[in-house]
C-alpha cells in the first residue's frame, strides 16, 4: 500500500512539474515546434489549442506578450510542499489525514495555475479572426474525438485489470 501511495504521489508531482513546464513554454515555441512533446496532448489537451492556426506577426507578438505576462503572474513552485509530501510518504507510519491535507494544498495551487492559463488562452482566442476561430473549433473537435477513442480503448483494459487482480487474490 505504501508503495502504491508513493507511486501516486510521485506521479502527481511529475504532473505538477509538467504543468509548470507547459506554462513556461512560450506560445512561439509551441507554435514553431508543433506543440510540446509527443503524448502531451493526453496530459494537457489545451497545450495544442493553437496548433494549425496561421497567425499574423502582430497576433504572434500579442500572444508572446500574454504568455510573458502569465509567467510573471504564475506563483513559484513551492519546494517545501514537495518536500513535505515526500516526508509524509516516506514516514514510518502512514498518516492519511496529513497526506490528504497536503495533497489538497498542492491541488489548490494547480487550480490557481489552471485559472491563470485559462485566462491567457481566452485572451489569445479573442485575438483570432472569425475564420481562425472556426479552424480552432474544427481542430478541437478532431482532438476531442481522438481523446474519446483513446478513452474508450482504455476502459475495457482497466476493467480487465481490476477483474484479474481481484480474481488472483
Give a quick precis of the structure.
This protein has 169 residues and is mostly helical. It is 77% helix and 0% strand.
* Average pLDDT figure: 77
Structural class: mainly alpha
Q: Using only CA atoms, what is the Rg?
A: 20 Å
Integer tally of domains: 2
Shape designation? flat
How would you describe the overall organization of this protein?
- By secondary structure, this protein is an all-alpha fold.
- It has two domains: 1-36 and 50-128, Four Helix Bundle (Hemerythrin (Met), subunit A), CATH 1.20.120.1490; 130-169.
- The protein is 77% helix and 0% strand.
- It contains seven helices and no strands.
- Helix 1 (2-24) runs antiparallel to helix 5 and helix 5 (79-89) packs antiparallel against helix 6.
- The longest helix is centred in the C-terminal third of the chain and has 39 residues, at 130-168.
- Residues 14-45 have low confidence and may be disordered.
Question: What are the main properties of this structure?
Answer:
7 helices, Four Helix Bundle (Hemerythrin (Met), subunit A), mainly alpha, 169 residues, 2 domains
Amino acid at each position: 500500500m505504501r508503495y502504491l501511495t508513493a507511486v501516486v504521489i510521485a506521479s502527481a508531482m511529475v504532473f505538477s512539474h509538467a504543468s509548470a513546464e507547459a506554462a513556461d513554454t512560450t506560445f512561439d515555441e509551441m507554435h514553431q515546434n508543433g506543440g510540446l512533446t509527443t503524448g502531451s496532448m493526453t496530459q494537457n489537451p489545451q497545450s495544442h489549442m493553437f496548433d494549425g492556426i496561421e497567425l499574423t506577426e502582430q497576433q504572434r507578438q500579442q500572444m508572446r506578450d500574454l504568455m510573458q505576462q502569465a509567467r510573471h503572474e504564475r506563483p513559484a513552485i513551492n519546494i517545501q510542499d514537495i518536500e513535505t509530501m515526500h516526508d509524509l510518504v516516506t514516514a514510518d507510519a502512514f498518516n492519511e489525514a496529513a497526506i490528504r491535507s497536503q495533497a489538497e494544498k498542492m491541488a489548490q495551487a494547480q487550480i490557481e495555475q489552471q485559472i491563470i492559463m485559462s485566462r491567457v488562452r481566452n485572451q489569445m482566442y479573442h485575438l483570432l479572426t472569425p475564420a481562425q476561430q472556426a479552424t480552432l473549433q474544427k481542430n478541437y473537435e478532431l482532438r476531442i474525438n481522438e481523446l474519446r477513442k483513446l478513452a474508450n480503448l482504455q476502459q475495457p483494459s482497466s476493467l480487465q485489470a481490476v477483474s484479474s487482480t481481484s480474481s488472483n487474490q
